[in-house]
Design goal:
586 residues; alpha+beta; Rossmann fold; Glutathione S-transferase Yfyf (Class Pi), Chain A, domain 2; 7-stranded mixed sheet; 11 helices
Amino acid sequence: MPAVIKEVILENFMSYRYARIPLSPGINIITGPNGSGKSSILLGIAVALGQTYTERGRRLSDLIRRGEEVARVTVVFDNRPSDGRRPFPQFRSDDVFFTRYVRSDGEYWHEVNGRPVSKLEVRRYLSSVGLDPDNALIIMHQSMVEEFAFVTPEERLQLLEGAVGLKGYRDRVLSAIKMLESIGREEAEVKETLERARDALSRWSELYEKYKARRELEGKLAKLNAELAWARVRDAAAELSDVEAAMGELERELQGIEEEIGKLRVKEGEVRELIERGEGDILRGAIELREGLRRLRGLWGELVELVSSTRVKEFEKRLILTELEGLKVKRRRLAERVEALRAKAIEAGEEVSTNRAIEEIEEEVRRVELEIAALGSVPVEVEEVYSKYRESYEDLLRRLEELEANKKKLSEELEKRVGIWREKIEAVVSDVDATFRKMLESVGASGGVRLVYEHGVEKAGLEIQAGFGEAKPVPFNPLALSGGERTTVIMCFFLALQNHVKSPLRAIDEFDVHMDPRNRDAVLAMIFELASANPGTQYVVITPGLLTRLPQGANVIIAQKVKGRSLVSVAKVPGGVGGGKAERAA
């Protein structure tokens, strides 16, 4: 069961003294005259859930009802268990209260079920149910349509990426570009430093000839260091082998679950086919109605059981995949550590097969080092200076090699990341374009959406084309369209994009500003159609216009202001659960 908002409670918030606004699963429509407090309900939801947009360019204390010192907004989620699981399993109560206090002195804080929590903790709870209040297409405020009209193509694309969860792909591309630039700068600095270090090392190498007597001990020390390095490789490789064995066991378990899921889905398809065939038999009169309904009930019960079993197996699969991901991360880190240790071991000397413990080798290393230090006739300062220059020079060489290797690897990785970004973005844009075109056709317009990135990912943008009536579609220009046409085009784009947004809640505030009745009804129909196609999603639609066609079961909230105080009444459109009964919230 998805997370559903049951109620919004506003206390001393804007024009509300105290109001409890019940919301239902599915469609919720908030209507009423301008200034009646419609938008305050959505703003209250956004504030309670910690939406960043509501905190930009405004003081939260300005939202407190005039004359009061503190406001409180609460969003109540339905946390009753479904299939044995609650939407918020962290809480055992059937209701979960997300509350935010705002004081006139500017102080504010969050509470969940009466317990003070940080904003980050609120985000973690909401994220667990797939709700991101900062996603621009989940809670769309009244000004969003007008603001979007004047954004650049680059900003449009970034909005799309953020809304559908692809922002990470762009971030990874941009991160690779910045890293390449940084590596280039560091490479130039290392080369310059390396040249100076080479000159200094040449001078000190002549002095180093005086210390040949030390080579015997230093040779022994080098062998010990090589043995130590390869012993570390040995231990790290053994740990890596253990992790890979554990992964193999999980992968075999995962394969078994996937086979079970496949069988369940095949059986589910067979049952669905039997249901369809049974319904056809009833409609054709090929079977007596009572008998047909009896069979269908049995088949539907079997289908529900199959779907539930499939979901349980998919949940088990996700658990295994999560554990596998953890092991993969561990394996990758261990593999990187083994390779790093191996590279250091290769530098230290040829591979050494040893059964000695690292502590034993380290102890012998320390003993030989003490013997070297005991050579009192050796000018220690010369050795230290030479060692310093040699090590510095070798470090610079290694760093330069690493930079060159990283530069090559990162260039290849950048190309790969751009390819993945392009593939993901083009797939989404293609789908959005198809839906956008259909929506425009329903309002007597034509157009499309296309990706433009001739100048690379950083300058990539999203071009919207539109034309009304017989006009040929041209790149979207808000100044060339009427207010209603501009709003209609933007809403069609937003709704087409919402198909890719996964969230239990979608809210739209006064989308129909400047729209003529025909376009307003058409866009409302699109919203209702989207709601019907996403039965697990709760919709909140705010409109000041007259409501002519409403979907069955819609929850209608009517806001009005009486003597400076906003009040709401609630009614159900017949056809839903509890339809027809109206109530009033103060």
